[in-house]
Design goal:
This protein has about 350 residues and is mainly beta. About 5% of the residues lie in helices and about 65% in strands. It starts with a helix and ends with a strand.
Length: about 350
């Protein structure tokens, strides 16, 4: 009798949800298992909206809340197959697409695409335990993707109003990783890939056609990356392997480039570039190396290679003419400094 009641309840929810409040809207709800709860709200302002929610067999205590209101032509899909999962989708713009796919236990996912958004696309996939994802998009044709595997990872993406064609991707395969992206501009791109344990990446971009890629690789624990880019067509690529490496980087201006590789343990790098068409290339291997590069001007280039342990390097360049610095350290306990004005 209990099974029959649940079946009838799920069927009644399906019938109710597929009766649109406004002509043209569609909602498709499928539930099986214990304690499933679905709330859907659609207010059509133009073209029809579509909602699909599936809470699969074997699941329990699932919750999915979907709200769509605005210019219409929004589509939301939620698939949940674990226990105690929660999913929330809110779309208030036009032509938005939102997808949440969750498996296993106690994952939480939220997508919010505001009334200012148009043609936005957001996707969250969670496969593990106690993962947390947040996507907020307010611009035009923005794209955001979060893919989490294993346990207790956190990812947040903000793409702000008046942005256009921004792309943000966070991929986490491990445990206790933290990825944070915020962007404001046109045609910017960020990719964060975190594998293994307790890695952290923060990226902030404000401007147009900037790109940042952070790879925190398998076998790495406790690595930290903080990147800020402000201007036009700046780019950074960072690869971290090993444990407890740290990079803090800021690029202000146009057409600046940084390429950084850290392997080993407890290496620390700080980079600041202000100007136009500056370049930094850094390779750190070994343990406990410290480096700082500061460039203020245009058409500067700095290349640094450190291997061994306990080395310290500083490069400072400023002025009104192009400059080049190339510094290599190997062995242990070395200290070098280059200053060009």
């Amino acid at each position: 009798m209990k099974v029959m009641k649940k079946t009838l309840l799920a069927l009644s929810l399906f019938v109710l949800a597929t009766s649109p409040v406004f002509a043209g809207d569609s909602a498709y709800i499928t539930q099986s298992g214990d304690g499933g709860s679905v709330t859907t709200t659609q207010t059509e302002g133009g073209s029809p909206n579509t909602i699909t929610v599936t809470q699969a067999a074997g699941s329990s205590n699932e919750t999915a809340t979907v709200t769509q209101s605005g210019g219409g032509n929004n589509s939301a899909t939620v698939n949940q197959g674990g226990g105690n999962d929660g999913a929330t989708v809110s779309q208030y713009g036009t032509g938005g697409t939102a997808t949440i796919d969750q498996a296993f236990i106690s994952n939480d996912a939220v997508i919010h695409q505001s009334g200012a958004s148009f043609g936005a696309s957001a996707s969250i996939t969670q496969d593990g335990y106690n993962n947390d994802s947040r996507i907020t998009q307010d611009g035009l044709n923005d794209n955001a993707t979060i893919d989490q595997k294993f346990d207790q990872n956190q990812a947040t993406i903000y793409q702000y109003a008046l942005s256009d064609s921004e792309t943000a991707i966070v991929i986490q395969e491990g445990v206790f990783n933290l990825g944070y992206i915020q962007q404001y501009g046109i045609s910017d791109m960020v990719i964060i890939s975190q594998k293994d344990q307790a890695n952290t990446a923060y990226i902030d971009q404000d401007g147009d056609v900037n790109s940042a890629e952070v790879n925190q690789n398998f076998g790495g624990h406790g690595n930290y990356a903080e990147i800020g880019q402000y201007g036009l067509s700046n780019a950074v690529t960072l690869d971290q392997s090993g444990d407890d490496n740290r990079t803090t980087l800021s690029q202000n201006g146009n057409f600046n480039r940084s390429t950084i590789g850290q392997s080993g343990n407890s290496n620390n790098l700080r980079v600041q570039q202000f100007g136009v068409s500056n370049t930094v290339i850094v390779t750190e291997s070994g343990s406990g190396n410290i480096a700082e590069i500061n460039e203020m001007g245009d058409f500067f280039s700095a290349t640094l290679d450190q291997s061994g342990s306990g080395n310290v390097a500083t490069v400072r360049q400023s002025g009104f003419t192009a400059k080049l610095a190339d510094l290599t350290q190997s062995g242990n306990g070395n200290t070098s400094s280059v200053t060009q004005n």
